[in-house]
Amino acid sequence: MNTRSGADRVYAVFTTASAAVIPIVVGLVFIALAVAGWPALRQFGLSFVTSSAWDPVGGQFGAAPAIYGTLVSSALALVIAGPLALGVALFLVEFAPAWLREPVAFTVELLAAIPSVVYGLWGIFVLIPLLRQYVMPFLADTLHLGSTPLFSGPAYGTSMLAAGLILAIMILPYIAAVSREVLRAVPRSQREAALALGATRWEMIRDAVLPYARSGLVGGLMLGLGRALGETMAVTMVIGNQHQISASLFAPGYTMASLIANEFSEATTPLHVASLMAVGLLLLVTTFIVNAGARWLVWQTARSRA
Amino acid sequence: MSVSARPVSRDTHSRRRRAINRLVIAITYLFAALTTVPLLAILFYLLVRGASSLSIGFLIHAPRPAGESGGGMGNALAGSMILLAIAALVGLPIGVGAGLRLAERPRTILSNTVRFLADVLNGLPSIVMGIFAWQLLVRPMHRFSALAGGIALGVMMIPMVARTTEEMLRLVPNSLREAALALGYTRWRTSVMVVLRTATGGIVTGAEIQSGVVDLARLQGWRVAHFRPARTSKGWRTPVAADGKGWPDLVLVRERVVYAEIKGDGDRLREEQAAWLQALAQAGAEVHLWRAEEWMDGTVDAVLARPL
Question: Which of B124, B136, B162 sits opposite A287 (nearest CB)?
Fold first, then answer.
């Protein structure tokens, strides 16, 4: 070490500095958004997150519908995609015959590579007409769910339901990929012991594999949730972009990310810009917490790999 | 899993267990099918609807004013390229540098923190990164620009590039690093010339192998004659004019004569090259076809080191 050349010192400084860029960027993001959003937070205080009034002309800004929409669409996506992704991961790790494993894994990974805006286009031209003509009438009339608040109101197509479905398709590959890694990390001995005691394969999974992998699987779900919370283009294209809070999944709504995407380039007053920045800050804090928690859980599982 | 006392009921019990087992397996099959269907639907939709308007003109022309039909996405395509170039300029060096640091000193507090934050940063919504870049770049510059977009994209690339680099470097065997250091390479040369090159070694060109073989042979006292490929016909010298095409890349002489044809990844042996190799072999010459494999696994070294 003491015979390091000058070039070695430059190299060490360069790589360390490059690595240090990452924490610095994280810090800068927080500081920049906090500074930019501060005027709006100071002016409206707590009502910024509780009020539904979003009126750029009148200078009133309340982000409650966007926050509500973000949470509901993401939760919906998680409810739909979570079990599917876990099923796919179990299929790939435990059950799939060798000739099916790679093609299915490849297809699922390919889903993650499709740009968000392409999902949005598909949503507008395929998913929404499908929802409007078949799925929504089926849910409301055939199943007689139209009287419940969850499925009431006119079926426009653009809706919280459409956003949740698109998000579900988009986060599925992430959850499936992480779940697969986590399930693979479960030691063989764990499985063999269960089988030796006479368990069927499902009993082996239920009693020996899933408990072992639980925190990692939860981490995978949270990673998917993080994606869903921040997903922008596809959601903007199908959610309808209305500042309203409605219990019905058929009603249009708004999310924080699509609010920023829609209004940012048209925001003229400083307060409008500051309000959008404050929305960005809220989104940043939410996704940061969700992602950090998810990473931590996944690492815990992966590290305990025997 | 309680085991019942009576044999009959144990039978029904285990039948039930097997049924549940089959049911679960069937459900996972169903889920796998449900997951692959949307992808195929989207791909199919894009192909059917998009393929008809795809043409060279669509790729190079600028869009017409709204309302007129025709035009293309030339400007958008050019913009993407410019953006990508700037982003790569910003993101790749820093990302690779960070990846090197993470791989070489994996257990320090800095590396652990950076790895964690890189993963978290990767998951942050691009719209958040977008308004962050706007606040830091566009606002002070007072205008939107490809530069601002490129830098923002570059910064977003850093965590991804860093983690991917780290993962790839981990696959390089430690013995390689130790060998280079033992030969007196400095640390940075070891990392950049040996470790990084091996990690990126997915694709090796014929020219790279050839210059490696020539250097190695010269060091071991071989006389080397090499012939440029026919493509760069300007400086093409070959001892045989008429059937010159396909003459082996290298002729090595040291007490014996060795003819070697060099092929990079993705190159195929052409017919006239095969014909020459065959003719030489039939005449009793020592003939070799060296690809990336032979170069990497020591076959080349063995042939060159072998005494007469």
Answer: B124
